[in-house]
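Annotated sample (chain length 358).
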Amino acid sequence: MAPTLSTLFGNSPVRRLARKALAPLRRRARWAMPRAGILMYHRVTTEPVDPWGLCVTPKAFDEQMATLAKHRAAIDLQAFADGSAYTATGDRIAVTFDDAYIDNLTTALPILEKHEIPATIFIVSQALGRCREFWWDALVRAVLESGQLPSTLAIELGGKVWSFTIDDQPGDAALAAHWSADEHEPRTARERLYLDLWNIIVALPPDAQDAAVDTVLAWAGQPVIGPAARYPAAPEQIAALATHPLVRIGSHTRHHVSLPDLPSAAQRHEIEGGHGELEGLIGRRIDRFSYPFGRFDAVARGHVQALGIEIACTSVPRAAVARDDRAELSRLQSTERDGDAFLRWLRDHHNLLGARLQ
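Output written by the structure step:
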């Protein structure tokens, strides 16, 4: 067997430097393969604070869908199952939504219809019809959107009492409107608190997540009940949506849990349970799945494949290539960009829509 970086250097600084040096070559190699794109959206709306870039304004979404329509690029995810999505110029793009926020129906769907764009909506089965926000949105409202925060917070999370000291300064709330948790380190005490709490709460059981954000909301002086515009859709709305010619339904677990943080039996309950509940709701087989938070491990992957699911999506931010495993398909999170910037992003950053390998 020929020596590899791992056998020669282990996980040493030399190996890490070698991986970094090889990254551009590996990227070029992927770009030279037949490829296609899967876009990931969450919401089509405007929010004052959006640390994870989940919101695209209706105007920007309309321009992005117009770009796909102009290039006749839009396809259904099924094309990734049979391999027909992949081309030498990367000119096939699928549109997906995670979580089934109500604005997917009220705002995004009319734009999809206008441009005749097919889309898949991945649905959290037990979230349907809940008259409350997802926990991560409630946490934004409590920590990043509130006025002056108290100077200390003591909260029990996962059987442990956590204590936080918050040096909240005038103007810190306004700064949060321009913070990207994916791209920037926290700059203020409230941004650090938000990220610390998020990283703890994400691994808690669903009931404990709700209890945690309720406690933080009360601490911040915010009501537990948030804006209805941030709610997920209702079951009857999804049942009707499943008959729409442009829309396909996918499963996204029962409670939007971090699967690798759960034992195998709990993962199976979340994956199989959510899948079965949605199939019962819409009255037909579901052939697609997305991993919540893009997180998965071999156990989760095995439970997905045991259901006979043909396509499972992650959140790895790159174009998909023909050799990729259909149970681990990459997706590109589309954020706020006008049509021209959207096209440049696809071409220059991901070698899609007719881009040439440079």
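Annotation: The first strand starts at residue 35 and ends at 41.
Annotation: The mean pLDDT is 92.
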